[in-house]
Write a structure and sequence with these properties.
It is a single chain. This protein is α+β, with helices and mostly antiparallel strands and 305 residues long. It has three domains: 3-84, Uridine Diphospho-n-acetylenolpyruvylglucosamine Reductase, domain 2 (2-Layer Sandwich); 92-202, 2-Layer Sandwich (Uridine Diphospho-n-acetylenolpyruvylglucosamine Reductase, domain 3); 218-300, Uridine Diphospho-n-acetylenolpyruvylglucosamine Reductase, domain 1. It is built from eight helices and 19 strands. The strands form six sheets. A five-stranded antiparallel beta sheet has the order 6-7-13-11-12. The radius of gyration is 20 Å and the shape is globular. It catalyses: UDP-N-acetyl-alpha-D-muramate + NADP(+) = UDP-N-acetyl-3-O-(1-carboxyvinyl)-alpha-D-glucosamine + NADPH + H(+).
């Protein structure tokens, strides 16, 4: 199908401002990595999301949902077809002890909104840089808390473009995973069930977690967050540190000197440099300690042709 015809159909669903052609994804990801998307689409309503999914199905064009790319590496060849980003869907509001957060909002902002309403249960998320949708996708967690602990329901669009309201139990949330990728759900909104709490106590917990994060994590550079899952019986960061890999650099990608579990983009790294460094770390740790580090970070897109 000719690109201009596809463009016309997309702008008929949303608007010109919300459809970009051959858009560099490194301008839209937290890591500043990634080649171009054929179409980068930023819908403004649930109905537009449904129509775009239906169009992709009808035409048979590849379709990818991109959050803010904080735990994701997009390859240098970019992504074919439609890439959808939901940053316009970012409303957050409370009603009683429930917090409603649209998927394009940052989970940090949901955590702050809960605090301002004296609601407790989302403090753990006060330093997680991902979107609400991304946080559900991978059951994000930190400091002993995870999305699974406080999520009540989610509103999603399925592969056919139908709108569904699902209970949290229907998402199979477990350590850094859910069934959202396998089922091809697009999360539009999360409904968190929290508890009324003492605002000063909530703030104290968040301040403490923020201090822990700022003192340990390399926030001065773009990174894709924690690169590896925790291997049973070990800590990924400690294994990498004990392998003398801190400061190891390939191109502009570096194993952080501040926290070995992070790989930072210190100088216009390419996705290939990032991925090569991940493989180098995995091989070194396997050779030295016999432990296989599994990626927590997702890698999508294609290599340059």
């Amino acid at each position: 199908m000719a690109n201009h015809h596809m463009y016309d159909r997309l702008i008929a669903i949303t608007s010109k401002e919300n459809v970009m052609v051959d858009e560099y994804l490194k301008d839209h990801t937290y890591t500043h990595l990634g080649g171009t998307a054929d179409f980068f689409v930023t819908p403004q309503s649930y109905d537009e999301v449904q129509q775009i999914v239906k169009l992709a199905n009808e035409v048979g064009i590849p379709f990818t949902l991109l959050g803010n790319g904080s735990n994701l590496i997009v390859k240098d060849g970019g992504i074919r077809g439609i890439v959808m980003n939901l940053h316009h869907l970012n409303d957050i509001h409370a009603d009683g002890d429930r917090l409603y957060a649209q998927s394009g909002a940052r989970i940090i902002d949901a955590s702050r909104a809960a605090y301002s309403e004296s609601l407790t249960g989302l403090e753990f998320a006060c330093g997680i840089p991902g979107s609400v949708g991304g946080a559900l996708y991978m059951n994000a967690g930190a400091y002993g808390g995870e999305i699974k602990d406080c999520l009540e329901k989610a509103i999603v669009v399925d592969r056919n473009g139908d709108l569904l309201e699902l209970q949290a139990s229907e998402l199979d949330l477990s350590y850094r995973t859910s069934n959202i990728p396998a089922k091809g759900y697009i999360v539009l909104e999360a409904i968190f069930k929290l508890k009324k709490g003492d605002q000063a106590e909530i703030k104290a917990v968040m301040d403490d977690l923020t201090y822990k994060r700022e003192s340990k994590q390399p926030l001065e550079y773009p990174s894709c967050g924690s690169v590896f899952k925790r291997p049973p019986g070990y800590f990924a960061g400690k294994l990498i540190q004990d392998s003398d890999l801190q400061g190891k650099q390939i191109g502009g990608a570096q194993v952080s000197l501040k926290h070995a579990g992070f790989i930072v983009n210190i100088d216009h790294a390419t996705a290939k440099e990032y991925i090569d460094l991940i493989h180098f770390v995995q091989k070194t740790v396997k050779d030295k300690f016999g432990v296989k580090l599994e990626r927590e970070v997702r890698i999508i897109g294609e290599d340059p042709s």
